[in-house]
Amino acid sequence: MRNEGSVGSTASQKRKDIMTDDFSVFWRNNERARILFYALLTHAASAGYDDDFLAALAAYREAGGAAAHADIFAAEYLLAQGEAENAALCGERAFRSHPVEPRLLDVLARAYAALGRYGEALVMQGRAAKLTGCPLTTDCPPALLTGEVLDRLSVAMGKPSYAPMALSRMSYDAAAGFTAREGVFAGEFLPQETDIHPPYYVATYTEQEQQGNKAWLLHTIEDAKGFAENVGGEFVYDLIRARRAPGRAEITLAAGQEVVLPVLGVQGFQRLHVKTDSLEKDTPLSPATPNFFRLTERTTLSSDRAFLVGTPISVGHSPQRPPLVLNLLADALPWEILSAHFAEWMPNTARFFARGVIFDQHFSVSEYTYPSLPTIETGMYPHHSHIFNDKIAISLPPEYVTLSERMRTLGYATASLMGDGIGIYNGTTRGYDRLIVSGYRTLAYEGVERTIRHLDGMRDADHFIFLHVMDAHPWPYPLFQVTASVQARLPLAERLSGAEDGVPSPYLRATPLAAAACRQGIRDLDRTLGMLFSYLEENYAEGEYLVNLYSDHGVPVFSKDHYIVSPDMTHAVWMMRGAGVPGGIVADELTSAVDIYPTLAHLCGFPVGDSVDGVLPRLFGGTGRDIAYSNSLYPGRTYCLRARTRTHTFHLETEDGVAPNGTVDLARAVTAIYPRTHEGIAGYEVDSPALRAFFYPRVRAFLQGIGSNGEQFPPPKEI
Fold it and tell me: Hey, what CATH class is 200-217+237-310 in?
């Protein structure tokens, strides 16, 4: 079955289809709304914000036009009438449902400027400029261009996945205007859009090294040309939620309470005076590196200069929860390939999860990490969280509660002991009290060792720990260095097979070098995880831990006929073991990355908000799902969707590219239904009224917010 949408359908036929829903066509455009949209654009282009414009806007709303589009037009009208406050309210309403839209960012910037909210206006301008490439201008009085405002602008103009670095660290001079340089928010608090208390202080990760060496190194190299583009030489940062103490801090504990307190200095060998009822002593603080102190009584900390006090870690276990919940994101671990070789390639992991649950039909929602991590951490599809465009950092609204925030509320000490910067500027990882991050150097052996040391020091606390490891992730060579073990082992012809510099990793070809590097990474990952699993089994009872291992997507390097949302890229890993998890089960029910959130909610005891798209699997007593969606929502490329059941796959690909705002015209989309066994293979298309009746309404519902109805705002001419 193939169709080309409903381009040729008349309006009356569309209305008939809507009423009867006979499933004769997949996509029905709202022609009336589309005509009114472009009429409004014509009015606006001539500054025709008059009664005719209002009448057309009312008709557009009545015709079922996009609410966000209507609010953008309304904001422009109100701004033209001098009603900046109401314009801002309309724009903010649109922003909640459509935040990555240059036209909206432009009108919000102008409304905020008219209200004197220059910092907010500048951030909106920065986002729009980053999306459109237009030059950045401002009417902001120079006196209001504070360091805080410029830092927020730096994030808006930077790359969201590079935290805590800034590709464009912004400054302003009356003569030169805005200038940008590469930099990093080191030794200072991280800029934030949402209200995070305490905020993150950017320190340096130092362990069993000379005090101050990493702070010295960072200070020495951070102004070097190419620092950010070269990922800071894979420098490892230690982000701590902390408050600044202006020379003194009182730590008051309840009777019997015990905590572990992180404290950070701001200068080498800064002296800290520690006074309790039972002791009084000085100790040095390491600069920009957390020092940990176990406290059992009221304690006064003082120094001759300011220092930083992190979030206390409560000692003691709650009987209502397992002492340890461990989330392991094995980036790019491909279940489509791995499942047939699991015991051979990952014997330690296979042994450990043989006493747990392995979800055999688990699928990622996206094809790469930037939208996948928020999907897992929020249980929301990317077009609902609006975290899909890796050009700009759109902050997750506070009403969307992340996994780490839920676990923090339950009383867990939350720590991401290995990860990259993807979830920081957009708020995905905002519930962690500590984040140890680097760009790409996220190898499991380092993360596992950190985890074991972390637990060894605080076994008597309840922990929620996240590890994001990339051993298995293939990278384009020679931009990324392949491990020496792979280089030395391969015959020369295979060693020279994989030079694909500049090719994004989701589009790498199947070459002997790329495949060998991925297999080696999988084996390296397993060897290291074996050490972690042995530690858990030796130090915790079965009901004292919950281990959750999953991948965010697959890899293309084993497939000759690669497609961006085919099983090699989206058939992902998900396995669990521990408290509340049945043992020895390979579950064949269909699951999605959005289901990880409600499953942890069920096992750990936190609520699932209305925004969550995931469902609890049947294995745990939930409704389960009958369809799983995997899509590529990458701006500039065609939109691709695979919607899978246990037996069939619905395929869709658009002719047009995805707009920066994450919408696309579906009218010319090519659709087909295939058996799962021959997914996407020409000649195997199947069709029946029953299949259409199943897939069409479900896929249409999923695409709400993605389908543009052919309505696209032209980019603003200037910002």
Answer: mainly beta
Regarding pTM above 0.85, the answer is yes
CA Rg, the chain, in Å? 27
Beta pairing class for 324-330 and 463-469: parallel
Helical H segments across 50-146, by residue range: 51-62, 67-80, 84-97, 102-114, 118-132
Q: How far apart are alpha carbons 648 and 90 in whole angstroms?
A: 43
What confidence tens digit (pLDDT) does each residue in 415-447 have?
A: 999 999 999 999 999 999 999 999 999 999 999
Q: Where are the domains of the chain?
A: 31-172, 200-217+237-310, 324-626
What fold does the segment set 324-626 form as a domain? Alkaline Phosphatase, subunit A (3.40.720)
Q: Which residues contact 533 (CB under 8 A, 6 or more apart)?
A: 348, 349, 351, 352, 547
CA distance 258 to 487: 51
Spatial CA neighbour of 69 closest among 47, 86, 44: 44
Q: Are 379 and 594 in contact (CB under 8 A)?
A: yes
- 567-600 b/e (C-beta count within 10 Å ≥ 16 → b): bbbbbbbbbbbbbebeeebebebbbbbbbbbbbb
Summarize pLDDT for 384-412 with one digit per residue, the tens: 999 999 999 999 999 999 999 999 999 99
In the numeric block, the tokens 């989206």 are attached to: 570
Measure Cα distances from 340 to 153, 337, 346, 350, 554 in Å.
Answer: 48, 6, 11, 12, 14
Task: Label residue 432 exposed, middle or buried (CB < 10 Å: 0-12, 13-18, 19+).
Answer: buried
Whole-number Å distance between alpha carbons of 288 and 310: 12
The C-alpha atoms of residue 148 and residue 162 are separated, in whole angstroms, by 19
Q: In CATH terms, is domain 31-172 a member of 1.10.287?
A: no
- What is residue 53's three-state secondary structure? helix
Q: What is the pLDDT of residues 113-158, one digit of tens each?
A: 999 999 999 999 999 999 988 888 777 888 889 999 999 999 999 9
